[in-house]
Amino acid sequence: MFTANRSNPSIERTSPGKPGAASHVKREGAMNIWISAIAAVAVQPLVFLLRVLPDYLSSPQPLYEVGLMVVAVVAVGAAVVLVLGIPAFLALRRFRREGWGSLGAAGALLGALPRASSWPRTLEGYSAGQNWHGNYIETYVNGTPTTYAWLTYAESVLLFALHGLVGALVFYGVWRSRQRPNQSFQPTAFGGD
Question: Transmembrane ranges (predicted)?
């Protein structure tokens, strides 16, 4: 309901019931977004561990650096969710496009963005190789990126996009579940209450 204030002719928003009810709804909405963002970041180590599980199981050597990588995954995930993810969600929400498809696509795009920005470049005099799916490959020969360098780049961009997609879908699931009223104590047709 809108009312005109006699001392100030501007229009102000009032809400029936308790004073401050509108600000409570805004705080609750913001809290739902933050809880959803925390869930989106918290799922990232699980995605990472599922990604490295085949390598870990097939490796004769223990992977000691996995713990450090989990911390790095959480740090990068938190930065991407905070700087890109929440503003993207708010923009989609403003245009009433906050469905699972649009959030999933935005999450995949924003997840891939940090890795996609560092593509293979020519590095004079540089040669390198790596193990890729059990085979040794040369990624740079005399400073020129090989086809394998581009394939490993594309694979890593897709894996980052997977992180973004899973994070966005978890965000959406948590956000939607927190938007619904709690009906756990409501009588049901088969509950007998």
Answer: 33-54, 66-92, 99-117, 157-175
- pLDDT (tens digit per residue) in 81-96: 999 999 999 999 999 9
Residue-wise pLDDT for 141-160, tens only, equals: 988 999 999 999 999 999 99
Concatenating the DSSP letter of every residue in the chain gives -EEE-SSS-SEEE--SSSTTHHHHHHHHHHHHHHHHHHHHHHTHHHHHHHHHHHHHHH-SS--TTHHHHHHHHHHHHHHHIIIIIHHHHHHHHHTT--SHHHHHHHHHHHHHHHHHTS-----TT--EEEEETTEEEEEEETTEE-HHHHHHHHHHHHHHHHHHHHHHHHHHHHHHHHHS---TTS--TTT--
Q: How many domains does the chain have?
A: 1
Q: How confident is the model at residue 8 (pLDDT cuts 50, 70, 90)?
A: very low
Decide if 19 is inside a domain: no
Residue span of the structural domain in which 111 resides: 26-56+64-119+160-177
